[in-house]
Design a protein that fits this description.
Glutaredoxin, 2 domains
Length: 197
């Protein structure tokens, strides 16, 4: 291997290490409690085809999680965490919380399938979907990265995507970003903080 090839290999190696460290840091580092400037809305549809906007629930605390029903791992873990966090709350607190599971896979996630999947974790979780354009716009608004990973056929594919639960304040701003390492108890604490804010 020539000097040029070796140098290229070293540069690529450092880039990959940097990316890996950045991902590890972003998943495990503490995050600020408030994000007053990160405010977004979406226009999607529930299982009955009714239009839903985040702004429809101003005055209540919302939880947002973007994923898809064929997800093999992180969506299951995140939705299970949301369900356990909701069960840590009192009935009065839960009445003020609106958890949403937003599909990044409108090609395969029909409204009926999506609703059944979300309810399997907790009956209070509302599933949302829309056109590809609507879903992409919602993901873009909340900085959710996602892309299709081709599989053995046109319908057998995975989606790589950001895995973060947004706790949205009563005023519509982002109160907290909840990453994978944080527990259901942590999430319940953040929800209570948003409820009292």
């Amino acid at each position: 291997m020539g000097k040029k090839g070796l140098l290229t290999g070293v540069v690529i190696g450092f880039v990959l290490i940097g990316i890996w460290l950045g991902l590890r840091f972003s998943e495990t580092s503490p995050v600020p409690a408030q994000y007053p400037d990160l405010i977004g809305d979406f226009v999607l549809s529930d299982a009955d085809g009714n239009p839903v906007r985040r702004s429809d629930y101003r005055g209540q605390v919302a939880l947002l999680y973007f994923g898809y029903t064929h997800c093999p791992d992180v969506c299951i873990a995140a939705l299970s965490k949301i369900a356990r966090a909701l069960n840590h709350l009192s009935a009065e607190e839960r009445a003020e919380v609106r958890p949403f599971f937003i599909s990044l896979d409108p090609e395969r996630d029909t409204p009926e399938k999506l609703a059944a999947y979300a309810r399997g974790f907790h009956p209070q979780i509302t599933s949302l979907t829309g056109t590809t354009e609507q879903v992409n716009q919602g993901a873009k608004t909340f900085f959710i990265a996602h892309h299709k990973v081709p599989g053995q056929s046109d319908v057998a594919y995975d989606l790589d995507h950001s895995s973060v639960t947004y706790v949205i304040s009563r005023a519509g701003g982002v109160h907290r970003l909840v990453h994978q390492p944080e527990s259901a108890e942590d999430l319940a604490t953040y929800i209570r903080q948003a409820l009292s804010g």
